[in-house]
UniProtKB/TrEMBL annotation:
Pfam families: MBOAT. It comes from Albula glossodonta (roundjaw bonefish). Pathway: Lipid metabolism; glycerolipid metabolism. The keyword Acyltransferase applies. One of its GO terms (molecular function) is diacylglycerol O-acyltransferase activity. This is O-acyltransferase. Homodimer or homotetramer; both forms have similar enzymatic activities. The chain crosses the membrane at residues 96-117, 137-159, 180-204, 210-229, 309-328, 359-377, 428-447, 453-471, 483-501. Belongs to the membrane-bound acyltransferase family. Sterol o-acyltransferase subfamily. Keywords: Acyltransferase, Endoplasmic reticulum, Membrane, Transferase, Transmembrane, Transmembrane helix.
Length: 519
């Protein structure tokens, strides 16, 4: 264009991706400069047609080329910032990211080789079965899961007895149970759901720690789901009461909802939802929050389903392999420094464990929250697939906890945090209460299977509160994000080592007084 001659070099030399740059810079895919076309396109715009400026019949082509080469020879500098200075506005670090990935792969390949040379192949799928079953004729964990149906049924029949019908004439037909008695039964049922598996795990000798984690995990999920089920049905009854009062006052007929002149798709309404089918759909759906009418996807996409299934199987094998080959030997080798209280070796072992632990946690995240949950959701045509958000960009600890596990966070908000805020509890106290509850369940899922009460998981969860305050107060942006990553990478192996050390001391030290060889 015309002004290219006045400040030509500034525009001409801009070859890199610069965010927020006002001018238009044309660039070929191979990165070569192409600044002539702007002028040529304008010059060739004729009767709405664009002529190719590079075509041999373009009259100005030769002249322009000559002019440019002279211009290039005369001036070769322009006012510009170095790419790595923040004032340059440069933001394309894709190459650096690739470099990080290459470095990561190379350094881990070395570790992988070192591990193989040192230990040989430790992966043993048969051993995985023994983690779930001590005695092939005794299957306590699956039996415990089957028994959980009794509690699910108890919740359903309690709700049926509590249900309220709206009769013609806007009279409410009360259920056979009063609200107070229903509440008592639900509390009894929910407490039994938490206590019954604990008693079983502690009393049945053939229960393995892994089997116990599985059974307690299922019971915890049932507890959270039935709590939500009770809450939502109670809200429905409250709405019925409010509606009956309004309708009986106005004596008007309830209008049939219509959308664009056509009847709305049939929706379940209270108490029509109190059926076995509805409750079991909720029990298997990948959510902890009950709803009368869940959003549904229109069909099952078979290719999507198969992809998720493949991922599930692949990542499960990978997880088991990495734990057996990488994590277990590293943990075993960490016992001696911990027993000797050799601080520098302890830190070295902790950092060594941090790498496989973090990798396994990331794979677990993808396997559980993306592959498995999407698989179940697709199979059940469950529409809401928001199982996680962009927690990896967390700049604060609270952002991480509100975004990495959406089903739990949603439950906490809907059934615990917001009800507390509504009752006038301060925000800080409500957040502390949520973390206390979460800490309780973390400890519940670790201490009881290990039959060892140490409170490391509880303290780890509670430590999130001061950590959240510190990061929120003193660190911003990338520093905050780095702090969240460091807390994840270092925090988890500390808890793992604490539990394994205590478990080892409790169960194995008497049988082998020397402990495992320190490598
Ligand atoms: C404690 C916790 C619930 C706080 O979540 P948060 O999103 O940071 O909380 P906020 O204070 O920002 O508010 C959340 C919601 O409450 C609402 N809210 C805030 N103050 C309110 C008030 N006084 N009255 C009513 N609602 C209020 C907000 O509007 C917001 O609603 P929205 O979600 O519809 O937008 C969250 O950190 C959490 O879930 N922690 C535990 C997670 C956990 O243990 N996970 C285990 C994974 S293994």
């Amino acid at each position: 264009m015309g002004d290219r001659h006045e400040k030509g070099p500034i525009n001409r030399k801009r070859r890199t991706t610069i965010s927020g740059a006002g001018g238009v810079t044309l660039k070929h895919a191979n990165g070569k400069k192409s600044d002539a076309p702007c002028d040529a396109i304008e010059a060739n715009l004729n009767n709405g047609k664009i002529k190719d400026p590079n075509s041999p019949d373009s009259p100005s082509r030769k002249e322009k080329g000559k002019h440019e080469s002279i211009n290039d020879r005369i001036s070769c500098h322009s006012v510009q910032e170095s790419l790595l200075s923040s004032a340059s506005g440069y933001s394309n670090y894709r190459g650096i990211l690739n470099w990080c990935v290459v470095m990561l792969v190379l350094s881990n390949a070395r570790l992988f080789l070192e591990n193989l040379i040192k230990y040989g192949i430790l992966v043993d799928p048969i051993q995985v079965v023994s983690l779930f079953l001590k005695d092939p004729y005794s299957w306590p964990a699956p039996c415990l899961v089957i028994v959980s149906n009794v509690f699910i049924m108890a919740a359903l029949y309690t709700e049926r007895r509590l249900s309220v019908l709206l009769r013609p004439g806007f009279r409410l037909l009360q259920g056979t149970f009063s609200e107070g008695f229903g509440m008592f039964l639900h509390i009894l049922n929910l407490s039994t759901i938490l206590c019954f598996p604990v008693a079983t795990v502690l009393m049945v000798c053939s229960m393995t720690p892994v089997g116990a984690v599985f059974a307690l995990g299922v019971y915890t999920i049932i507890f959270l789901k039935l709590y939500s089920y009770r809450d939502v049905n109670k809200w429905c009854r409250e709405m019925r009461h409010a509606k009956a009062r309004t309708l009986s006052r106005s004596h008007s007929c309830p209008s049939v909802p219509r959308a664009n002149g056509t009847a709305v798709q049939a929706q379940v309404s209270y108490p029509g939802n109190l059926t076995h089918r509805d409750l079991y759909y909720f029990m298997f759906a990948p959510t902890l929050c009950y709803e009368l009418n869940f959003p549904r996807s229109p069909r099952i996409r078979k290719r999507f389903l198969l992809r998720r299934l493949f991922e599930m199987l692949f990542f499960m094998q990978l997880l088991v392999g990495l734990i057996q080959q990488w994590m277990v030997p590293t943990i075993q080798n960490s016992m001696k420094p911990f027993q000797d209280m050799d601080f520098s070796r302890m830190v070295e072992r902790l950092l060594k464990l941090a790498v496989p632990n973090h990798l396994i946690w990331l794979i677990f995240f993808y396997w559980f929250f993306h592959s498995s949950m999407n698989f179940v959701a697709e199979l059940m045509q469950f529409g809401d697939r928001e199982f996680y958000k962009d927690w990896w960009n967390s700049e604060t600890v609270t952002y991480f906890w509100a975004n990495w596990n959406i089903p739990v966070h949603k439950w906490c908000l809907r059934h615990f945090y917001k009800p507390m805020l509504k009752r006038g509890v301060s925000k800080w106290a409500a957040q502390t209460a949520v973390f206390l509850l979460s800490a309780f369940f973390h400890e519940y899922l670790v201490s009881i299977p290990l039959k060892m009460f140490r409170l490391w998981a509880f303290m780890g969860m509670m430590a999130q509160i001061p950590l959240a305050w510190f990061v929120g107060r003193f660190l911003r942006g990338n520093y905050g994000n780095a702090a969240v990553w460091i807390s994840l990478i270092i925090g988890q192996p500390i808890a793992v080592l604490m539990y394994v050390h205590d478990y080892y001391v409790l169960h194995f030290q008497e049988s082998s007084p020397q402990g495992p060889a320190h490598k």
